[in-house]
Each structure stands twice: as C-alpha cells, then as structure tokens.
Specification:
Blueprint lengths: L22 H31 L3 H28 L2 H24 L5 H23 L11 H30 L2 H15 L1 H9 L14 H14 L1 H28 L3 H26 L5 H19 L5 H28 L6 H30 L1 H14 L18
Length: 418
Amino acid sequence: MENPASVHVAPVHHSAFSPLREPLFRSLWIAAVISYTGSWMQAVATGWLMTSLTSSPMWVSLVTVAVSLPVLLIALPAGALADIVDRRKFLLFTQSIMVAAATVLGVMTLTRTVTPQILLVFTFLLGVGAVMNDPAWQSLTPDLVPPEKLVAAVALNSAGFNIARAVGPALGGLVIAATGSGTAGSGRAFLLNAVSFFGVILFLYHWKPANTERRNGTSTFSGAIAVGLRYARQEPRIRSVLVRTLAFSFFASSFWALLPLIASKFGAEGFGVMLACFGVGALAGAGVLSLARRRIAPDAVIGYATIVFAVALCGLVRSHTLALASVFSAAAGLAWISILATLNVSAQTAAPAWVRARVISMYVLVLQGGLALGSGVWGAVASSQGVQFTLTAAAVALAAGLLLGPRYRLQPDGAHSR
C-alpha cells in the first residue's frame, strides 16, 4: 500500500509547462479548457435565464441547489466506481449525459418551451453528469504524465480551469447580449456548451490507457464504498479537510446563490464581466498561492483568504458601479481559489492512489453539499430579509467559522490543485 505522505511529493525538476510536452496530456488539456469554457458559459446562461423567467430570489437560488444537489445523492458511488471500473469508458458515459442534457435544454430554450421547473430539471441532470465525472477526471492525470511531472500537471489543470473561469463567463455574457434576448442568448449558450464536450469525448474515444488494473484489489461496489469511508474516518487530516470545507462552502454559497440578483442592475454584459473578474482573480490567486505556500502555513492561508472573501461579500452587495463590483468579484475569486486549492491539496496528499478517487468524492460531496444546502438557506433568508442583509450575515458567519481552525488543523502541502 502506498504511504499517504508520498503522494504528490515528487521533486519538481521540470518547468511549470513541461507536462504540455507530453502529447496525451497536451491534447486532453486543450480539450478540457474548451469544455470548461462551455460549462462556464452554461453557468452564466442558466443564472441569467432564470432571472428572465422569474424575479423570485428563491427560484434564482435554486439554480445553485440544482447544480449541487446531485453530489448528495451520487458523489460517493461515483468515487467508488472511478476506483473499480474502466475510467475511460466511465468518463465517456458521463460526458455523453452532459452533451444530451445541454442539447435538449438549448433546443427547448430556443423554442421558448422552457419554464423555471424545466430549467431546474436539466440543470440537475448536468449536475449529475458533472458529479459522476469529477472523481474519475481528477484521478486521470497520473495516467498521462510521468511521476516527476505530476505536480506540474496538476497545477496546469488548475490553471486551465481558471482560464476557462475567466473567459467562459465573458463569452456567455456576450452571447446573451448579442441576441438582445436573454432567452435566445441562453439557448445558444447551452448549445455551444454541448459542442464543447466533443473534444474531450474524441480524446477519450481514441485513448488507450496502458494500465487498466483495479487498485488495491477492490472488486465490489459496496465494498469499495465501505473501505473508502473507513479510511476517511481513520485519517485525521481528511476529517479536518472535510470539516473546514463544509464550514466554508455553506456560508460562501451565498455568493453564487445571489450573484445573479446583485448583477441584474448591470445587465447581462455586467453579469458576465463580474464572473470574468472572479475568474481572473482566481487565476491570480493560483499564482499567489504557489508563492504563499512556501512561507505561510495552510491554516494561515485559509484564515487570510476567508477574511478577504468576507470583505468581498460585504463590499459587493454595497457596490453601485460595475467597476467597484468587479473589483470585489476579483477579490472573491482570489480568496475562493486560495481556500479550495489548499483544502483540495490536503485531501489528495492525505490519500494513497488506491483510494484517492473515493477521498476526492468525499471532498466534492462536502463542498457541493454545503453549496446546495447553503444556497437554499440563503435564498430563503434573502426572500424575507433582503440581499444586503443576507450577504452581510454570511460574511460575519464566515469569519466566525475560523474558530474551527485550532481544532481542525491542516498540514503543510506542496502541490497545486484546482
């Protein structure tokens, strides 16, 4: 069995871009950036379409619930499957689910047959595909690069995701604005998202992995889940990661749940600009984090970034110009990636390869489950108390959550992760 401490600690003797010299990794990385961009376009279009269909804060916040709720239902089974089945075929299946859902939703939106209920259903289906995809996807990188380039490859995956986070929302806003209609623009964005998956699908279809052995002898579905849960329960670092992730995601979900309402006064282009600024901030945060981890302990990184995120929430809801709102969005992006990258790296380095997909699925379960539950709560609070009160209360609660730090501490890590 691999020692957890040995995961992701290979010395970095290569440049940050050296994994791109590996043909397989380069092909998938390019395809993944395109797919991520389509997904962020979908996110913008979904939020904007819901605000076009209804002005209710509850319905708007339910979009985030629909994206995140599938985690509560299938994250653990998805992680177990990723550890015991052919990951290539499994990923082809999950990618196909998302293509179908985005295509049907796009057609229904363009034909004006979409309703808030239908939008939530197909958003939920896309969430199902994403949750099934994620553990297997994150576990794929070691099969594409040599061990000495793994850390750089994980960092490039993070950079690719954040490049898409910066570009996708802006493109989504432009597509919506170019039509002069939120409904038609959203429909076109949904169809573009469906097309964006085909690069990854083509890669997976032609790729023949060299090693298809099941890890650690796990052969049964229920047994794989039980082993994964038992491992997480016995590993203090993983428990700390899960508690800290839940504390952050529940309160930080107020940002995603209510951002479309905050941005509505700036129009579709303004919404896209704010999300793009969030992505730029996240991309900058990935670079800042790589420097900060050399000098600052993970707990301190999370503490500072949480304060920044809380201040951003308070400032964002009080901003009366797009420029100021964009600054606070960028600050939120920087804090967001600093916190979640630190937690994700802690989770991955605490787990040996044979159980890594299951540990990732638990991390995703807690993260997205916190976002889903929090979005529903903050949407209900905003419906009765207003958006400004809600985001201020969430910011205060985020800062108070730092009191968990001394009891649930993280060990220093040396790897990047998205």
